[in-house]
Design a protein that fits this description.
Length: 288
């Protein structure tokens, strides 16, 4: 277990959590989510009248005593879900204290672990050398170390926008979790595609405290982390007011897109991971 991303004390606290989704699956392997199929799990779903050939062990004799007809019990079969976690690995994520990249990695590990506990299949998607990189179909607690190892090897130095690459491959119906600072012009295009791919979409918007509440003042030279272009700026009170308005507009556009496509949305500051989980992800309904 990685002591950097997720420690044993936190692991124990995660045992009682699950990834919240209204997802109902039509088909798939046995798992921890409810399916439209009727099977033989322990959760009761409905009755139907007995017909020749049905398993007589499923006859409800209490119903027979009441209605003088034979009914069998139907149960909701549980299916595993596909959980796709998209981690933005562009250079802008490698900023802040702690860095957004580290917080994003921690959140991905937490969601991955909670999903595995729920018997879901977890895949991680990132960008590497301007292409979509991934590790797929991780299921079972014994493979969690493999997932963490992959996350720990991520290098947040890409210039290729992850959101340009998502529509390059199909995805099985499931849950898609996006972890990014959303510094992209392709966010809605990617969300629209994932929605078309029958995904329940969760957007975890990671911004640093410095980006949300900058405390710079005076003459500052800013360097674009991705283009390396520099710009000299004199920061005054008026500058900060204008920045706040621009930030509000930026956040509003992201939220409106999420609302349009029915996504869960959560804005995350780079903070302690337990604060993020128990005061944010649970409060916003992403975890429960």
């Amino acid at each position: 277990m990685s002591q950097n991303l997720i420690d044993s004390k936190l692991i124990k606290k995660l045992e009682r959590l699950s990834l919240n989704s209204n997802l109902v699956l039509d088909k798939g392997f046995m798992g921890g989510r409810k399916s439209k199929s009727k099977g033989s799990s322990v959760e009761f779903s409905d009755f139907r009248e007995y017909t020749e050939g049905d398993d007589f062990r499923k006859i409800d004799w209490n119903a027979y005593a009441r209605f003088e007809k034979l009914f069998i019990k139907l149960f909701t079969e549980e299916r595993e879900a596909s959980v796709n976690i998209f981690i933005d690995t562009t250079k802008s994520m490698d900023y802040g204290n702690p860095k957004k990249s580290f917080i994003a990695s921690q959140i991905a590990a937490v969601i991955g672990y909670v999903s595995i506990l729920n018997m879901d299949r977890v895949s991680i998607y990132t960008t590497k050398e301007s292409r979509l990189d991934y590790i797929e179909n991780i299921n079972g607690k014994n493979l969690f170390r493999k997932l963490v190892n992959y996350i720990e090897t991520l290098s947040f130095k890409e210039t290729k926008d992850m959101f340009e690459l998502i529509n390059k491959r199909p995805f099985k119906k499931g849950i898609s979790v996006i972890i990014s600072d959303m510094f992209t012009d392709n966010f809605e295009t990617a969300i629209k595609y994932l929605s078309y791919m029958n995904q329940n979409i969760i957007v975890i918007h990671t911004l640093s405290k410095e980006e949300l509440k900058p405390k710079y003042v005076g003459d500052i030279r800013f360097i674009d982390s991705e283009t390396k272009e520099g710009k000299d700026v004199t920061i005054t009170l008026e500058t900060l007011v204008a920045y706040e308005k621009t930030l509000d507009s930026f956040l509003s556009n992201i939220k409106e897109t999420c609302t349009k496509y029915g996504c869960f949305y959560s804005l995350i500051e780079n903070d302690d991971i337990e604060e993020i989980i128990f005061n944010n992800l649970i409060n916003t309904g992403i975890l429960r």
